[in-house]
Amino acid sequence: GRGGSTAPRAICHPFPGRSLRGTPQLESALNVALPLYEQWATAWPHWVQKRVMLRPLVGKTGERLRKSMGGEAEAEVCGVHLRRFSAEEIPSLFPKLQHEGEVITYDSCFSVELGKVLGHLAHEQERAGNRVTTEIQLVSHDHRGWVLHGESERYTCDTLILASGSRLQEWLPELQGEVEGGHLLTLRGAETEWMASRGDIHWSPSPDGAVVGATRWKANEKAMLSEEATGILGDRGQSLVTFPVEAGVLWQGERLVSAGERYPYAGAIPGSPCAYVLGGLGSKGLLYGPWSAESLAAHLTSSTPIHAALSPQFTRGGQEIAISSVLGS
Fold first, then answer.
1. How far apart are CA 31 and CA 87, in angstroms?
2. Is 17 left (phi over 0), alpha (psi -120 to 50) or beta?
């Protein structure tokens, strides 16, 4: 798949930065995301699990984190709870972790089988009488409003929101951002109760084992071959745990990362009537997605201003922007 909705597992791990300096944007995002995933974990425990994330204190990032916490064993940043454990505590608290130094844990974090959740939510929309389709190929605008053209049907709507993930720049070539890609590898026989992040790898348990990933490439770079990615991710996953693991299925996908501070885009498309963009979520879709979507919804329903950090960035600033797949007025 090209985007995260087909990934075997997605994670929301709201780490508040290398120096533990939370931002108002992070706090706003957490206030929306964490209650939502608490509900999901209760409603769909097989698809969504609440976890603790382990982060070994290694390298320069580890030194910055250690310095930020000072002599404190616990900290609270934007509602994220952090605890530091000594090397001596690791074997008894996290016996399957392959690490001999200090560790920081932070929570709440969530592991999500996103495809199953999205499929269920789409089914609920259809039961409520709303049309759900993936066949839209072109859009146009006329006196009726926006017209969405599928292979066999057409649909009309007053308001258009482009939220096509990694393909957003195909519709909006002037939208600033970069497409990045990566791999996720499922591991069999890999049972842990915790997630782990060590800079070059993310580990997330799943009902059938675990999923590891983090390898990325830019759009103008050559993607790794499947055999190479499987070997790298398998080795990195094995380096985190003390028991043998077996590589399973490899997944490859792409994501659009917004320009500047890498916050997502949620706002109007200049010059296009009642047209908006929502995307650029990068690797933080579960963290920033609910906040950016709720901000755009509040703007559309009650004219609430959208946070400036979410403003879409185009190559020509605020001038009129054309949607490349508009057939004509």
1. 33
2. left
